[in-house]
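User: Fold both of these, please.

Assistant: Here is the first one.
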Amino acid sequence: MGDPAHFSVVGGANPHTRDRWGRRKGVDRALAQEQWCAMRVRLEELGVRVIVVPAHPDWPGLVYPANAGVRFGHDYVLSHLTPTRVGETAFYRKVIEPLGLQCHTLQARFEGEADLFPAGDFLLFTYGEIRSQRFVPRLGIPPWKRIYGFRSSPMALDEIRSIVSVEREIVQVRLQDERYYHGDTCLCSFGPAREFLLVYEEVTEPEALRDLRRRFGDRLIPLEPRDAELYAANSFCLDRDGEATLVMPNGISSVLQGKIEACGVRVITVDVSEFLKKGGGSVKCMIGDLGLLPVEKSSS
């Protein structure tokens, strides 16, 4: 998790970070600190070892380490981030390499486990058109709009395969609504084997959605707009000794919670609203999931 001491909106690189006039939003840093600390405590109560990425005033996006990269065994493929976040990579490397993982870099645009994550027997890779982020004129009020685009390019897959051994099939899913600019904002695999899938169907390209329905069948759970807008899919799946837990953002509907619990998965909610409303990232965005790592033995 990334220390939120310098959390702010600098680049304004997704639709949540700006108001309707295109102005970057201000962050209530005290509230963000309170929410971050409460989530960390909750994760540690669940048995998670939390490693903190130190804060840096020039790189406030460090609070979202799901974008740091993705792990394959002893290898860690670092992301090639947007220009406003590219400097974060060096800080992630400093934290990850001492854990015994070998870091690799990419040339193609790629934003880590936010766009490449396990789902059942395969990996999902989500992507969309990468565009130059800018303001463009339009008819309406205000007379301009912000172009955001998506974050990962399919070209990254060839690079990743050339660096590490990828044993699982990779299923590509194209996204079509830049409000859901990462796969982990609109899809979430969960369960002991990540065999269930939450999907906000409206923002998934139709052919890809048909493929997901075919693969998951009745294990696919569509999200209603209200839950999707809360980034219910941006949740953290934890499996301990075959008991699965899904850590989700506060405010999800009782209907959705009931459907997840009917799958035999415990639901725990945390309040990270300041990170979603101002930065466009919720529970999973705030966690870089390194999987199982050795725990140092106590000297006592």
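And the second sequence with its predicted structure:
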Amino acid sequence: MIGEQRFGESAPFSLGVEEELMILDASTFEQVAAVDRILLGVEGLELPGSLKTELFASVFETNTNVCTSATEIDQALPALRRAAAGSANAEGLAIAAAATHPFARPEAQPIVNEERYVTFAGYGGISVRRQGVQGLHVHVGMPSGDACWRCLDAILPWLPVVLAMSANSPWFAGVLNGMASNRAPILAELPRAGAPPAFASYGEWEAWVERLAALGVAEDYTRIWWDVRPHPKLGTLEVRVPDQPTDVHLSAAFAALLQALCATALAGDLPSSSLLLADRGRADYVQNRWSAARFGARAKLVHPDGSSYVPVGELGAELLELVRPAARALGGADLLARLDPATCEADLQLEQPSPEAAAADLVIRSLG
């Protein structure tokens, strides 16, 4: 069910960011099921957010407090990573940020012994056991449910550009299979994943969620794993499409980009013809999502206006220019300079000679 709705309760376009990070043995760089030790080690610390469990016991999540600017996010995320790294170091462990572990087998990772995760694994089977993938989730405060859905529809055609720029999972279970983002297709194996259906309004989405809950299909809307979704309990639009960056300052830069993208969309300054298409651009989205995952920064995508087939480098540069005025007004313009549409962090992983070397490099770059 939908339950409590908190739209409009925070500052306009407030931000909250979640990073999903891996726990590794500091010597072998194998994943280690030690989330309980990481969380115990940060107890009592004054932090600009919190740490929590995720599906696998070898992964944890950092959540920032609600922030008004991407600059605050840029201060909070490194502090949370440093606290987690200190806890890990005391246990002979390390943390690493990327959208996949270069050589660990996801199916071998223990599930956290909490009811929500155990029942999820029982329901989803192998499609859940394969979810050894980490993403960056950016929450942007919305004034109302209707504005939230309008924003979702407007920004959706641009999200494959963000996926391509953030692609950071070329390795999967020790293999380079040619994908820049293995995370994207693996996430799509879950039910209710990928692009949101073309609902006409927030009310129509809400009625669908309530019907599914009443039928027993899904407990509530948090059991929907779309690339972007309303999060009424937090009063936000949650953008879930980016791969988890290794460089923490890129996480803040993507937060600035997505905050400004939402502001630009609600101001009516985002060009797109998706609403004029019969399926509201969902077919183009499926094509672009695949291409972004396959090729990363070297992808070509159907332009969000539907009129051309364009390299990501050009589309990314166009996107940055479109959102720059909003980013300047929101205090995040300087962070956009960190984003280079011509490359992505998958390229850095591909420079490593082996998955073990890639894992070691991730540990180094995750703390700067």
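The chain has one domain: 15-346+355-366.
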